[in-house]
Specification:
This protein is mainly α and 373 residues long. It is built from twelve helices and no strands. The protein has two domains: 157 residues, no CATH class; 165 residues, no CATH class. The longest helix is centred in the first third of the chain and has 34 residues. The termini are far apart.
Length: 373
């Protein structure tokens, strides 16, 4: 009788070595990692807002991606940093006579903002490396995840481009349009991460089936609302960049007028849309009304959906839309104090993501399960 090649001479049989099972793509684990990244980016937006509201963004005058991680050590190092700041227009024209203690207060805000940015990059890099080495990234997702990291790196460069605009000439703040680009890119990154999380928490086959239930009209309305909200966020950055939120602390009128009479006083004409506090705040208010109207229309249209998940997501969108509108009015009436303005900015993050979720639910509705009575 033929002997097995896996049988030794003593007659004992030896089992054939079993190949190691290939690791399966881990959609759920990657979504958890991305949720952590999402929270860090959201925190980055809030800290960045506080840095702007406390006029701390120009306290560090150099961009040192690696060595800048270490803060000043000792009084001599602090004096060097303070001397660099005292050569800036912001100090010479606005903060002359600032004490070392006051300088340290604004320095730590900006240092914390930059340190958090570095930590976000590290969190992305090691998370991506972990899943890549374990071959757990689903097919087609490597490029998307690398793209998030690349946008994060670009955001750091845009951040320095923004800061550098306030270190020359007679500038005592960063250029408002650069601030808008910086904040807009942060929301693009945040929105992509949120969408990826929504997608990864459902299986590919399930998503393909869900596309057949897509509610086209409602999805179109939600997409339009996302675009309007993103534009409103850019306008909000312009408002913050020139402190326009403190210019007209009245509502619904603006100092007794619908459109302030000084709205087009700047020359050249186009600069009014970016630098004139009257027109910038007016545009922010007007687009807010449009967003509220579109949100209400989308919510009303969602009432006709037969799917409870779709209706529920638009319910929450409308609740947050109303809350954000109230926050905006309160921010204006009280002259944009730091504690209210930052809550309003955080509200923008929540509303933007909830609206994205409503758009996703309209695009990939979860199948309705009918239970027995």
């Amino acid at each position: 009788m033929a002997r097995s090649i896996f049988e030794d001479v003593s007659g004992d049989k030896v089992d054939a070595p079993k190949p190691k099972p290939a690791r399966k793509p881990s959609r759920r684990a990657i979504s958890v990692w991305l949720m952590g990244l999402f929270l860090l980016v959201a925190l980055m937006i809030v800290v960045g807002g506080l840095t702007r509201l406390t006029d701390s963004g120009l306290s560090i005058t150099e961009w040192k991606p690696v060595t800048g991680t270490i803060p000043p050590m000792g009084e001599a190092a602090w004096l060097i940093e303070f001397d660099k700041y005292r050569a800036t227009p912001e100090y010479l024209l606005q903060n002359a006579g600032m004490s070392m203690a006051e300088f340290k207060g604004i320095f730590w805000w900006e240092w914390g903002h930059r340190f958090l940015g570095r930590f976000v990059g590290i969190f992305w890099f090691f998370g991506f490396l972990w899943f890549a080495l374990r071959r757990q990234i689903p097919t087609g997702w490597t490029t998307r995840l690398v793209g998030v990291g690349a946008l994060g790196g670009l955001q750091g460069a845009v951040g320095w481009w923004m800061v550098s605009s306030g270190l020359t000439g007679r500038m005592v703040d960063v250029a408002s349009y650069r601030l808008a680009i910086h904040l807009g890119l942060a929301f693009i990154i945040l929105g992509l991460i949120a969408w990826f999380v929504f997608t990864l928490r459902r299986e590919s086959a399930e998503l393909l089936q869900a596309r057949r239930r897509r509610e086209g009209g409602l999805r179109t309305l939600a997409t339009l609302l996302v675009v309007v909200l993103f534009s409103q966020i850019l306008l909000g950055a312009l408002v913050a960049g020139i402190d326009a939120g403190r210019s007209f602390p009245t509502w619904p009128s603006m100092a007794g007028e619908f459109l302030p009479s000084e709205s087009f006083d700047y020359a050249p004409f186009w600069t009014n849309f970016f630098e004139n506090p009257a027109l910038v705040q007016f545009n922010h208010r007007l687009l807010g009304y449009l967003a509220f109207f579109l949100g209400g229309l989308a919510w009303w249209r969602s009432r006709a959906s037969a799917l409870a998940g779709v209706r529920f997501s638009f319910d929450w969108m409308m609740v947050m839309m109303f809350g954000q509108m109230v926050l905006g009015i309160v921010t204006v009436i009280y002259g944009a104090p730091v504690e209210i303005a930052i809550v309003h900015q955080l509200g923008a993050v929540v509303l933007f993501v909830i609206t994205l979720k409503a758009q996703f639910e309209a695009s990939y509705p979860v199948e309705q399960k009918i239970s027995r009575a």
